[in-house]
Amino acid sequence: MTTRLMIALLLLLPLSVSFDAQSRSRKSADKNAEKEAEKEPLVTAKNYDTVREHVLPSDEEEKWRKMEWRTTFWQGVMDAQKADKPVLLFAMNGHPFGCT
Amino acid sequence: MIARQSVWSNDDVAKLAKEFIPCADEVWRLQNSDDADCVHFRKWCDEGGTLNGDGPQTTRQGTFCCTPSGIFLGSLNHRQPARVAQMLRDALKKYNEIKKEDRLLKEDPAKTWETINRAEKQYPTDGLVLRVNSRDMPREGLRQDDWRTHAWNFEYVWFRKPELEGLVPNSFDKNTKWDIPDTVVRRIARYALIDNVRGQTPSWSNEQVKEDEIECSVSNIKRGTVYFDMTGKFLMEAEGRKIELTLVGKGEYNTRKQKLEKFELVLAGERTGRTQYNAREDDTATAPIAYVLHIAPDHPTEKIAPAEFWSYGWR
């Protein structure tokens, strides 16, 4: 979480600096320049890695993948039959390991 | 998506789960289809009581334990690992008290698998599978103790090999530039770039995609690998929701293996509005959002069909 907070601060900092700079420049710049400054993209070649790291899940957020999951109920039944073990089914609206 | 992390990342639950065969599945199909796996599920799923209220159409989402033969062992729908762990202990005890001939199926369930209609059977092994990660960008005024502040989600977008025609040119030099084919860009726009950070949301229709383009240019060619940069723009708009994004990406194509070894897109921009189930009812104002798309790793949990796979029109 600390790493993610640091990334968040890094991402917020340029936005805040950019806002201050825009405020100062408004006194002298014309409206077209103002519009251009507001439309500066949130991702560029410069902050590519920072945005990427912010979005991608951390190891902790992906820890659930380490269990030996089968991704359909019937694959679970087939393997449970072979191993003589009970089936543990995690079922959600939308596949739990996809977009849910 | 919270249970995915809070319950199944817990060490006690993971240790207990080794005594089971753990599996995950989409519950609507299990509740409604006539396939054999769904009929099997419905025979026993409510024996512990319906988990989410009454009525035949009430969602049965939750965690269930059963014998392969379909004897109910336990169920609950809860995010607290300790409660799930207790249910697993109780279920395991019950399992061991049932005679082997009763807890196992009389016939080999592998025979039944061939009759079951699953989207996953169409996984495009020789095509391209992109994993789409989505998360809100930082902004002021969010509560750190609210799950929605830390929400993230993922989805998959599938492409069959014939759909990838033109994804990379037949020949390259240092000045080569090209556009990613419309078919690929449009599927990304419609199915990947949706506001699913807090929960499932419908895709965009073709008419709702106002702008979608990805341009590529070679940045280096070294030892048989072509390195290329990507830039692009996306604008999707419908009644009650809008997303506008800028894209920067990096790709690597191995000319010897004729294989795309890296295809990574980072997109950021603004989202506005909500849909019925995406938990934005109090967050409809324009706010920053970002996505990372990359080739999905070769792991069982990464081979899940896209949520709206049925609308791809694949046969």
Concise summary:
The complex is a heterodimer of chains A (about 100) and B (about 325). Helix content of chain A is about 50%, strand content about 5%.
Describe this structure in words.
The complex is a heterodimer of chains A (100) and B (315). With 100 residues, chain A is mainly α. Helix content of chain A is 52%, strand content 6%. Chain A is elongated and about 60 Å long. Residues 15-28 of chain A have low confidence and may be disordered. In chain B, strand 8 (225-238) and strand 9 form a beta hairpin. In chain B, 34% of the residues are buried. The mean pLDDT of chain B is 94. Classes of the chains: A mainly alpha (100), B alpha+beta (315). Strand 1 (87-92) of chain A pairs antiparallel with strand 2 of chain B, so a sheet runs across the interface.
> How widely separated are the two ends of chain B?
30 Å
**Could you give the count of β-strands of chain A?**
1
**Helix-residue proportion of chain B:** 10-25%
Contiguous runs where pLDDT drops below 50 for at least 5 residues of chain B: none
Helix content range of chain A: 40-55%
Ends apart, CA distance between termini of chain A: 23 Å
Task: Considering residues with a beta carbon less than 8 A from a beta carbon on another chain, report the largest interface and each chain's count.
Answer: A-B, 55 and 90 residues
Question: Main β-sheet of chain A, in a few words?
Answer: none
Structural class of the secondary structure composition of chain B?
alpha+beta
Overall mean pLDDT of chain B stands at 94
Quickly give the structural class of chain A: mainly alpha
Shape of chain B: globular
Helix-strand string of chain A: HHHHE
- Please report the number of helical segments of chain B: 8
Number-wise, the strands of chain B total 11
Major beta-sheet overview of chain B: 8 strands, antiparallel
List the total number of helices of chain A: 4
The H-and-E topology of chain B, N to C, reads as HHEHHEEHHHEEEHEEEEE
Overall geometry of chain A = elongated
> DSSP strand (E) fraction of chain B?
25-35%
